[in-house]
Amino acid sequence: MTLLTKGTQCHNIAPVAESDFDFSPEKNAQLKKERGVGFMDEELSKALNRGQLKRSRGTRSEIRLAREAAANYLKKDSRINIRLSGTDLDMLKRKAAEEGLPYQTLISSVLHKFVSGRLLSR
């Protein structure tokens, strides 16, 4: 994530490789097509090209801290064994296949959403 400031506003820009820092509208359109997300809107692109934006201080250390936090958050360091009925396991495997996920990943995701209060019922 690159942080750019314009006056008192701070803008987050989707992560791109350092070699991708060609801030032309054409490059942005190409990134949107290739990656599904561009790194800035047209107003930011124009401001950057006019030299009105500058990098925020401490960006590299903030990025390092964010990466460490994400790695720790996503770390799966515990194992469990559970017994399920064959029918429930078959339904989980079917649902996982429909979602294009391994069934253990689906189970982990459902459990995570439940304990974090984000599991929504229909």
Can you put this structure into words, describing what you see?
With 122 residues, this protein is mainly alpha-helical. 51% of the residues lie in helices and 10% in strands. It contains five helices and three strands, in the order E-E-H-H-E-H-H-H. It has helices at residues 25-35, 42-49, 59-74, 86-99, 103-115; strands at residues 2-6, 9-13, 54-55. The chain has a three-stranded antiparallel beta sheet with strand order 2-1-3, with no helix packed on it. Helix 4 (86-99) crosses helix 5 (103-115). The longest helix has 16 residues, at 59-74. The radius of gyration is 21 Å and the shape is elongated.
Global morphology: elongated
Query: Which stretches are poorly predicted, pLDDT < 50 over at least 5 residues?
Result: 1-8, 13-20
Query: How would you classify the quaternary structure?
Result: single chain
Average pLDDT level? 75
Estimate what percentage of residues fall within beta strands: 5-15%
- The number of helical segments is 5
> What's the N-to-C terminus distance?
35 Å
Main beta sheet strand tally, sense and closure: 3 strands, antiparallel
If you compute it from the alpha carbons, what radius of gyration comes out, rounded to the nearest whole angstrom? 21 Å
Task: Decide which structural class fits the backbone.
Answer: mainly alpha
Element order: H for helix, E for strand: EEHHEHHH
Number of domains: 2
Instruction: Work out the helicity level.
Output: 40-55%
Tally of strands: 3
Widest beta sheet: strand line-up: 2-1-3
